[in-house]
Amino acid sequence: MDQKIKTILDQFPIPEKLVDAKPIGNGMINDTLAVTVSTPSGTTETKYILQRINNNVFEDVDTLQSNIFKVTEHIRKKLQAEGDKDVDRHVLTFFRTKDGAPYYRYEDGTYWRLSLFIKGSKTHETVSPELSREAGKAFGAFQSRLADLPGDALGETIPRFHDMAFRLEELREAVREDKAGRVKEVQDLLDEIEKRADAMLIQEKLHAEGKLPKRINHLDTKVNNILFDADSDKVLCVIDLDTVMPGYVLSDIGDFIRTAVNTGAEDEEDLSKIGVDMDIFHAYTEGYMSGAKDFLTPTEIKLLPYGGRLLTYMQTVRFLTDYLNGDIYYKTNKPKHNLIRTKAQFEFLRRLEEKQEEMDGFMQKWL
What we know:
Number of strands: 11
Radius of gyration: 21 Å
Structural class: alpha+beta
Low-confidence stretches: none
Order of helices and strands: HEEEHHEEEEHHHHEEEEHHHHH
Oligomer: single chain
Largest sheet: 6 strands, antiparallel
Strand content: 5-15%
Shape: globular
């Protein structure tokens, strides 16, 4: 085992003998290692997950880890009160260092955290209606168990992450500066974005009027952020809690619609392949509402499909902003990749707009 990793692991209260630590998963933000230990019987098993926190993305590591401990401890208490007999598989368990800190900072300035590995678990990268229903249940239950945790108990790990007004400000600044000389090329797209701008600021307006509350959200509701039981394929728990923070529930259902309901890829060049999979939408929404309906207001329920349009519009804006700035934020692997992404997202937005009446009508059963 690398001496640096061993030094880091030695800062945490691991009673077993360390054997190995190897990279696991395909996350794009943090570096993740599976830690193998030796048991008293002499066998080995993977028991822990060690992660390097990307403090370039999450600059306030104290707030990040404080949020995660508050959320996981709150959910653990809820599960215990519900009589859950297998709590350690149904919520992530993070460890403090021997000094009681929520993370360890190595001498090179990197930040590390340790959690329990959940045995017999797996993730999915693709969706089906059944998996979407299970994902909806998981994220709905996740929000429901956190509904009584005051929103101000958590800080923003990425300030203004899903703030539409802020994202539009960024785009307009990129247009003014035109660093890469690309504004003229995309004027038609800019016109379409501005045409929809006022309609995409509804949640901020309703919040200011006291009609749309802020709640604790996951803010990265993809199917691969859920652990499933390897045998039964039933949900075990929600993972990847770095972006859990106060926001609007429209974000959590909206991001799943944006990523899973689209029949095309996020960077699809053949726009004819982009469409709306209503079976996925129906399944996810039904699963989500089974866990979330008890705390949602009628206004929130009515606006859930709008969340899909909002998050798709927001990502269109973010991709186009990066394209105008010279591709400095998102990784690209082909010429004009961010413009391709922009056009694909905008096409999906148009498809969602065509389905607006049908999707809005689907919510009537819960009103």
